[in-house]
Amino acid sequence: MNYFKKILQFAVPYRRYGFLNIFFNILYALFSALSFAALIPMLDVLFKPEQKVLEEPIYTGLGNAKNYLQDYINYQVTAYSGDDEMKGLVLVIGLVLILFLLKNAFNYLAMYFITFLRNGVLKDIRNKMYQKIVDLPISFFSEKRKGDVIARITSDVLEIQHSFLSVLELIVREPLTILFTILIMFGISTKLTIFVFVFIPIAGMIISRIGKSLKRKSDKVQREQGEFLSIVEETLGGLRVIKAFTSENKFFNTFKESTNRFFKFSNSLLNRQNLASPTGEFLGILVIGVLLWFGGRMVLIEKTLDASSFIAYMGLAYNILTPAKAISKASYGVRKGNAAAERVLEILESENPIKDPAQGLAKTDFTTDIVFKNVSFKYEEDYVLKDFNLSLKKGQTVALVGQSGSGKSTVANLVSRFYDVNDGSILIDGTDIKNVTKASLRGLMGLVTQDSILFNDTVRNNIALGKADATEEEIIEAAKVANAHDFISELPEGYDTNIGDGGNKLSGGQKQRLSIARAVLKNPPIMVLDEATSALDIESERLVQDALEKMMQNRTSLVIAHRLSTIQNADSIVVMNKGKIVEQGTHEELMKSQQGYKKLVEMQSFAG
Questions:
Q1: Strands 526-530 and 556-560: what pairing?
Q2: Who contacts 87 (Cβ-Cβ below 8 Å, separation ≥6)?
Q3: Which one, of 559, 459, 558, lies nearest residue 510 by Cα?
Q4: Which secondary-structure segment (H or E) carries 165?
Q5: ABC transmembrane type-1 domain location, by residue (predicted)?
Q6: What is the C-alpha to C-alpha distance for residues 531 and 315, in angstroms, rounded to an integer?
Q7: How far is C-alpha 445 from the chain's CA centre?
Q8: Helices (H), 504-604
Q9: Which CATH class is domain 452-523?
Q10: Using an 8 Å Cβ cutoff, are 525 and 480 in contact?
Q11: Of 84, 207, 238, 380, which is most buried with the most CB atoms under 10 A?
Q12: What is the architecture of the domain spanning 2-15+107-348?
């Protein structure tokens, strides 16, 4: 129920639809009960014409309300029909039809308004989840598989709509339908109604027993769904490798194992769920059967109930069955929805440890330097950087080189504040970056990574990602600086060409030059290049390297280097090993020292 309350908070902006739903549900419940009660005068006209009421009855108080109402309708029917009994029958049939029509009209209106609330909550939860996914640190998603996150924002949110939000439809309508029906049933026969109540707790206990393990079973189904979505996502991402290593069967078997588990869990869950409806129906019919025996005895032997009232009473008793079944089904839904809500709220309630300070500085320019001061950092158990110190002055190009795992990319992640340092501090113009707003800090930086991360959109929109209001001239100028304009012009629709998922319609060099054009257009004072040429062939590297050199002019650049060509002209080259600086100087100085750097140059292999 705790999860239900949290999900209901999303319904607050749509509460007017909720109130309209409640209003029409009250009318629906009232007319649902009245439509069956109206059968009594119709049956009286058919079966007891000798009991016509010729004089208008007098209301004597609440205790006589039922008889007064019955006699009043009988009197009006008699007055309208005169000697023509068919006329009276048509009138009563018309009354019953009008009541049923109103009941269904109010039902439609109640459903109409709740639709806006349900879909509005669905939309807001998804928006909030996406906003949270974008806001949470990169470290959060290194622990969660992408497919599992996709399952939460799609099927789990949909499950909440089907389970929790369907309860909103029932929370007023069904209990009120039962309440109004029972009130009228009491009006017809108190003795018979008390007899009905003996069976309700028994039915409730049986249904409750069936539903206890539903949440646990549902949780397994949803987790397994996340599992096989992850396998699909990984397969699509690595299809080329899977085919190259003829691993299709291995991946198919992994997927088949997951779907088999899903099959088993789903069968168990649905069979348990499907038990609710027939159980509820049988218990209802059992109550009706006992009622027929007990009520029939009152009509035939005791003569304490007339036949027309008994038939209407049976209709009312059956009228309780549908809402009772819906309530029992909804209780299953809540249990099932609990598992989905738990998974959704796990993301929504995750705290982002990388927060903006309350009085954060919104930095608009870069004037002096970036300083790493005794920085220590670890992703998990072992430190990747330990007491790391580095100064990067404005206008300088500093290159980081070293073997794979030496901590080079970590430096780029920390300066962009994708992660926070464990110890020490990173200062920009003398201010700790933790005291600067994330948006303004990242606004000062342009990032070009080893993997060209592009989006399924046009060339123009990919370049203008960091500057939405860029003019056509600015986009073309940025593309020229990145040596990308010529190949873009040859594309079928030029800058309006869609480049496909991840830019897969372009070559590696073309993708990288678009990434550089994107950084150039943003025009930041600080550039972070994370092995920007390592994945390219010689010709593409030459074009990209030329673009990088043009881009780095008059900018402060932190270059994580893979190849010698990228860093020969750097103001300072920092050689790293196991998270520490082992050498530092210009290319010439380090070559003369004949230590680790020279060895790396000779091997021509700077891995990242």
A1: parallel
A2: 80, 81
A3: 459
A4: helix 157-188
A5: 19-336
A6: 77
A7: 31
A8: 508-522, 538-552, 587-593, 596-603
A9: alpha beta
A10: no
A11: 207
A12: Up-down Bundle (1.20)
d(CA 5, CA 9): 7
Phi, psi of 429 (to 5 degrees): 50, 40
Could you say which DSSP state residue 153 is in?
I
Is the CB of residue 184 less than 8 Å from the CB of residue 269?
A: no
The pLDDT tens digits for 151-168 are 888 888 888 877 766 776
Q: Name the token pair of 540.
A: 């593409």
Listed by start position, the domains of the chain span: 2-15+107-348, 452-523
Instruction: Identify which of 13, 111, 118, 17 has the alpha carbon closest to the alpha carbon of residue 337.
Output: 118
Whether the CB-CB separation of 337 and 159 falls below 8 Å is answered with yes
pLDDT, residue 608, reads: 39
Output 288-293 pairs: Cβ under 8 A, ≥24 positions apart: 288/314, 288/317, 288/318, 288/321, 290/195, 290/199, 291/192, 291/195, 291/196, 291/317
Assess contact for 340 and 159: CB atoms under 8 A: yes
Q: Which two tokens stand for residue 261?
A: 């588990």
The token pair at 442 is 């990242």
Altogether, the residues listed in the chain come to a count of: 608
Q: What is the pLDDT of residues 451-460, one digit of tens each?
A: 777 888 888 8
| Model confidence at 604: pLDDT above 60 | no
Task: Provide the pLDDT confidence category of residue 313 given band limits of 50, 70 and 90.
Answer: confident
